[in-house]
Design brief:
- With 425 residues, the protein is of the alpha+beta class.
- Helix content is 29%, strand content 26%.
- It contains 14 helices and 22 strands.
- The radius of gyration is 20 Å and the shape is globular.
Length: 425
């Protein structure tokens, strides 16, 4: 089987890395990929952007691609899965209708309420005056969210009413473009965050081990939100009892609500959760694809053949699958460009990648490119690398990841040194 992976980040590198291990995959293509993905066995990069849906469908048809795996949320929300299916191609990823779970927080909130899923009390506002009037009657902390896609940067957990009002004004002023309107304002949930990614064939749900990522840019979860500065799995925050609650109270009701709306959802159903001190889960948000950087810690622990699981999803036979996992833990540390998530420079030469790999860690490329005739690898994004380690304990996995991080150098490199701090402390 030939497989096409769409995307260019650390998530897609992890997907290509894992799919290349499958005996059923003879050839991999990645569009557009990055400098690290280009070095994976069986893989060839394509000069096609994730938004070139016509080109991607045309290539997959001519090349007789057996399975297309859509990495990022943007093409899914744009309807890329529908286009592949219309062309008679197998695709791992939900339809445009299903991708609204991530594409519109207001739509997702309505679906959750319809399904009886535990989530924060919230309201949706189409204009700035009504949103600010609502905030004037609320206490802090409170959460302000852009309705649309914002690459992980559309959420403000405001500690004061003034901070919340500033966030609302910024969104309605167009700081995130069309994604910033309408605005969703929610009560602030208390507890620890966790990510549960689940495979689904539209009828059945098969959760993976839970991960915990670190969204704020600064140590101790301070500063503005990013796409994710690191993660580890499994997280003790989600015990077997909590996972059963997630399955029964969140995943299965949402899948049933989607079916009730006539939506067949195949791919990844990702629940971003807040776990209360009593172990009760509440949904912060849903995503319609693999998480980033959660994928970089979940897939290294997955013993099962990823390609076979994905095929079972698209062929609606997930009941035949039993996921198998390696023992131990995985941890990922994101190395970012200086200035991220605000302005940053590209084109900085990266050194030490071979030495990092020699430690036994896995270096997933996120924002990298090959430069000029020399083919030197340079920075090409805000999140540059995701350095992942595995170990018998979380501490051992983190030590391996950080040992590899210390081998890598590029101008302005920044990383958090406290991944896993909430459970290690």
């Amino acid at each position: 089987m030939q497989v096409l992976v769409v995307g260019s980040g650390g998530r897609e590198h992890a997907l290509v890395w894992k799919l290349a291990q499958s005996k059923t995959v003879t050839k991999l293509y990645c569009a557009p990929g990055n400098a690290g993905i280009a070095r994976e066995p069986k893989c060839q990069l394509l000069p096609l952007s994730v938004s070139d849906i016509d080109g991607l469908v045309r290539f997959a048809t001519v090349q007789n691609i057996g399975l297309a795996v859509i990495g990022p949320e943007v093409p899914l929300v744009a309807g890329i899965a529908d286009r592949f299916l219309a062309a008679g191609l197998e695709v791992f990823g939900p339809s445009q209708a299903g991708a609204q779970l991530e594409g519109s927080k207001a739509w997702a909130k309505d679906l959750m309420l319809e399904a009886g899923v535990p989530t924060a009390r919230g309201s949706v506002f189409e204009d700035e005056p009504s949103a600010i009037a609502y905030l004037e009657s609320q206490s802090a902390p409170i959460v302000v969210k852009a309705d649309g896609l914002a690459a992980g940067k559309g959420v403000t957990v405001a500690q004061t009413r003034e901070e919340a009002i500033a966030a609302v004004r910024s969104l309605f002023a167009g700081s995130l473009g069309a994604a910033g309107s309408p605005v969703v304002i929610e009560d602030c949930l208390m507890g620890q965050e966790a990510s549960v990614l689940a495979f689904t064939d539209g009828k059945r749900i098969l959760p993976m081990i839970a991960a915990q990522d670190h969204k704020p840019v600064g140590e101790g979860d301070t500063g503005p939100n990013t796409g994710g500065m690191g993660a580890y799995a499994p997280t003790p925050v989600v015990s077997s009892e909590v996972m059963e609650r997630v399955r029964l109270q969140v995943l299965e009701p949402v899948l049933a609500a989607l079916r009730d709306r006539g939506i067949t959802y195949k791919g990844i159903l990702y629940a971003g959760l807040m776990i209360s001190p009593e172990g009760e889960p509440s949904v912060i948000e849903f995503n319609c694809r693999f998480g980033d950087p959660e994928t970089q810690v979940v897939l290294p622990l997955l013993k099962s053949d990823l390609a076979e699981v994905m095929l079972a999803c698209v062929e609606e036979r997930l009941d035949e699958v039993r996921l198998e996992w390696h023992d131990g833990y995985a941890a990922c540390v994101v190395m970012a460009s200086g200035g991220y998530p605000q302005a940053y420079e590209k084109g900085k030469a990266i050194a030490g990648l071979e030495a990092a790999t020699a430690t036994g860690a896995q270096v997933f490329h996120a924002g990298t490119a090959s430069s000029g005739k020399t083919g030197a690898i340079v920075t090409d994004g805000g999140r540059v690398l995701g350095v992942a380690g595995r170990g018998e304990t979380l501490q051992a996995a983190l030590e391996l990841a950080y040992r590899a991080v210390r081998e890598i150098r590029f101008e302005g490199a920044y990383f958090r040194s406290d991944i896993g701090f909430r459970v290690l402390s």
